[in-house]
Amino acid sequence: MRIARPTRIVLRTLALVYLTVLLAVPIVTILWRTFEPGFGAFWESIRTPAAISAFNLSLLIVAIVVPVNVVFGVVTAIVLVRGRFPGRRLLSGIVDLPFAVSPIVVGVSLIMLWGVNGWFGGLDNVGIRVIFGLPGMVIATIFVTLPFVVREVEPVLHEIGIEQEQAAATLGASRWQTFARITLPAIRWGLTYGVVLTVARALGEFGAVIMVSSGFPGVSQTLTLLVHSRYIDDHNTHGAYAAATLLMFLALLTLLLMTVLDRKRPGQPSGATIAAATAPAEADTDAEVAGADDPAPPGPVASAVPEPELATTTRSSR
Amino acid sequence: MTAVVGQGAAGSPAAPARTPQPRSRAGWAGRVNGLTLGVVTLWLSLIVLLPLAALTVASFGDGWSGFWAAVTAPVALAALWTTVLVSAVVAVVNVVVGTLIAWVLVRDEFPGKRFVDALIDLPFALPTIVASIVLLSLYGPNSPIGVELNATRWGLMVALAFVTLPFVVRSVQPVLIEVDRDVEQAAASLGAGNWTTFRRVVLPTLAPAIISGGGLAFARAIGEYGSVVLIGGNIPRETQVASQYIQQQIEIDRPVNAAAVSVALLVISFVTLLVLRWIAARGQEREERAA
Questions:
Q1: Which chain B residues are closer than 8 Å to A14 by Cβ?
Q2: Which structural domains are found in chain A, ordered by start?
Q3: CA B141, chain centre distance (Å)
Q4: Helices A270-278 & A237-264 angle (0-180, nearest 10)
Q5: In a mutagenesis test of the A interface, which of B107, B117, B126, B224 is the best target, namely the one with the most A β-carbons within 10 Å?
Q6: Of the candidates A315, A58, A69, which has an alpha carbon nearest to the alpha carbon of residue A191?
Q7: CB neighbours of B169 closer than 8 A, spacing ≥ 6?
Q8: Is B19's CB within 8 Å of A302's CB?
């Protein structure tokens, strides 16, 4: 289509006006409202004891969730890529399930399982308080971040194949040696990307966490809960803006990291990955849960990757 | 965002991370032993399946009639209706504006295009509660421009449009980059006007990506909580969405009601995703038959 210049400019203007009204102006406004009373006021607002404790709690949750997701995520990815067993597609569907579940529903589900009146309510009698305690917040965060590492490591495992691992095994390497020397270096960028997504989501999760937290300032408030309670309970609007701005900077940092990492990862559609990762669900999730036996028409991303690129990938990631 | 995406990714933009494996490499069954498989299954069950199972059982705690009564309670029904209505409107807005933005980002050239392109991902990177606060700072009480949308359905729509912005843009963009422009030129040389070319040539190619993006935006909007919790106002029968109703029922200790509406919400989003999946599979089939 050759579009006349005036039409082109009209279309461009429409698109830019929409983005300005929806994205740019609100973000400029919150920055302005945060820093209008001066940088000192912002700094004080994020240095209150409640804010520091919220920041620490958020970091603590991240510090627990990331290693757990790395270990189970990599193992799950290996099982899904290398395993040939009945129900593999079902398992793969379960991994995507958290994308399809509303954060609030995650919270309610966890209460029904781990709450005092839930299936595992007996834990409370032996003094382990899951819901309204740190374990509940950790479990909720694990639920919502579960797919990231798996889904980022999986395609890389597909791509590297098993020739090198076979070669290592032939040369007498043990399973663990093969994993540490061959597999791990090959998947490291995919893994890093998955970890970045996990950190971002763990820091930013709100709905699932607020359902299972007691929300006491200074005790069980994460950064997102702090933003909420400052706005709703304390009517401390500037405090809420300041905490939100802090979270926004963390998010921008993540976005920057993802852009940098994107270049390091082999043959992946960039924006689409973020979309898929943050999307509530991949479209193919539930057919798999339903056990559709027809193999998914896979997005032929890798088949479009020419063989030489595969070679480069393996070389550069070693 | 100019990464080269395989032609076929066009057909199923919703499954971008899946890379197919030549079957020849795959026949290595012995690599994953039973223990590992067991650990993974146990882990996924504990984290994902058991909570959802507990939820479903809890929703039928008062029997089938209790479930039905909980879901069809007027306020619950109103919340579900508001959720579906607002999400559908937002999905349609996304379909139109998202396609337009994708088109401008691919076919148009203007200074600052890369910056605008990077801006699109921002709603996915921002925590939802931050999205809420960001929008309130402009459209909330004491709005600097005098537009106060808090506690209105307009506010809900703005919040949901904000968090779902990237879906359609990011699913249409790669397809549009790959589109064969010769066909468009052929159509033009045969005397088709721009509108006809767009409607008859470009739109059919983009349709699967647009539908998939719109569907994902709808599914996301259905369950959204963080971005609407502050701006929505939580007024029963008016701006209260399903997730807020569920949260409220937990707060006033009505777990069966909360669980039942949660299950209803899950069913809606699963059905949406199944329909999307079915549409994508049909499109793929048609493409294969044509090829």
A1: 100
A2: 28-292+302-316 (1.10.3720.10)
A3: 29
A4: 130
A5: B126
A6: A69
A7: B98, B101, B102, B105, B120, B213
A8: yes
How many Cα atoms are found within 13 Å in the side-chain-facing hemisphere of A308? 0
**Closest by alpha carbon to A152, among A261, A289, A52, A5?**
A261
Q: What would the pLDDT profile of A215-241 be if each residue is shown by its tens digit?
A: 888 889 999 999 999 998 888 999 999
Q: How far is B68 from chain A (nearest CA, A)?
A: 18
Q: Is the pLDDT score of A3 beyond 80?
A: no
SS (H, E, C) chain A: CCCCHHHHHHHHHHHHHHHHHHHHHHHHHHHHHHHCCCHHHHHHHCCCHHHHHHHHHHHHHHHHHHHHHHHHHHHHHHHHHHCCCCCHHHHHHHHHHHHHCCHHHHHHHHHHHHCCCCCCCHHHHCCCCCCCCHHHHHHHHHHHHHHHHHHHHHHHHHHHCCHHHHHHHHCCCCHHHHHHHHHHHHHHHHHHHHHHHHHHHHHHCCHHHHHHCCCCCCCCCCHHHHHHHHHHCCCCHHHHHHHHHHHHHHHHHHHHHHHHHHHHCCCCCHHHHHHHHHCCCCCCHHHHHCCCCCCCCCCCCCCCCCHHHHHHHHHHCC
In chain B the domains, ranked by start, together with CATH numbers, are 51-290 (1.10.3720.10)
Q: What is the pTM of this model?
A: 0.83
User: Around Cβ A123, how many Cβ atoms within 10 Å?
Assistant: 16
B74 min Cα distance to partner chain A (Å):
20
List the Cα angle A198/A48/A217 in 5-degree steps: 65
Q: State the Cα–Cα distance between residues A295 and A276, nearest whole angstrom.
A: 20
Measure CB to CB from residue A30 to each of B28, B97, B137 and give the nearest one.
B137
Q: B36-55 as b/e, with b when 16 or more CB fall inside 10 Å?
A: bbeebbebbeebbebbbebb
* Residues of chain B neighbouring A119 (CB-CB closer than 8 A): 50, 54
Q: What is the pLDDT of residues A33-81, one digit of tens each?
A: 999 999 999 999 999 999 999 999 999 999 999 999 999 999 999 999 9
At A246, the amino acid letter reads: L
